[in-house]
Request: fold
Amino acid sequence: QVQLQESGPGLVKPSQTLSLTCTVSGGSITTNYYFWHWVRQPPGKGLEWMGHIAYSGSPYYSPSLKSRTSISRDTSKNHVTLQLSSVTPEDTAVYYCVREQAYAYDAWGQGTQVTVSS
Reply:
């Protein structure tokens, strides 16, 4: 059974870069046809897709966040990293790491709260 665990600082100052890690256990991030997504949910709002990195290592980003987002991976550690630059209070949200297979999200991390505040 695959498990995803997000980790990172819970508080980030405006204009700084937010960096989160998704550590995957019970499965490899390079397994064919899996995609590893970052999704966030601001308080009182719906889920927002941010981007993903494919089993091949190719990333793809939401057009609205593309200029500030970078998703990478470390295959030796079996984890996926999200970086979001120039954060503002509007980036305050619960951030989730999610696995997709065959167009379905089939595994979620528990989520990690990130607050942007000075």
In short: The chain is about 0% helix and 55% strand. The mean pLDDT is 97. The CA atoms of residues 50 and 62 lie 5 Å apart. The longest strand covers residues 93-101.
